[in-house]
Write a structure and sequence with these properties.
Layout: E1 2-7, E2 12-17, H1 21-34, E3 38-43, E4 47-52, E5 56-61
Antiparallel strand pairs: 1-2, 1-5, 3-4
Length: 72
């Protein structure tokens, strides 16, 4: 599932495909609660990203998309 992490003071987003969103949310919550400085996020196709926890402005988890065919 596609996850977008917005970084404060940069205007930058980190877009990653996450296989287990529930596990990602748990790791994010644990990182925030423990005061960790970095959160490692792995995208199976693009590699790993280190995100500064203090700089996370928002996290957007896209819902399951359905493809439509034809006119809407």
């Amino acid at each position: 599932m596609r996850v977008r992490i917005g970084l404060a003071d940069t205007g930058t987003d980190v877009d990653v495909d996450i296989e287990d969103v529930d596990e990602f949310v748990k790791e994010l919550e644990d990182a925030i609660e423990s005061g960790a400085s970095l959160l490692w996020v792995e995208d199976p196709e693009r590699g790993r990203y280190a995100v500064a926890v203090a700089k996370i402005a928002y996290v957007h988890i896209e819902g399951e998309s359905t493809r439509s065919v034809g006119l809407r």
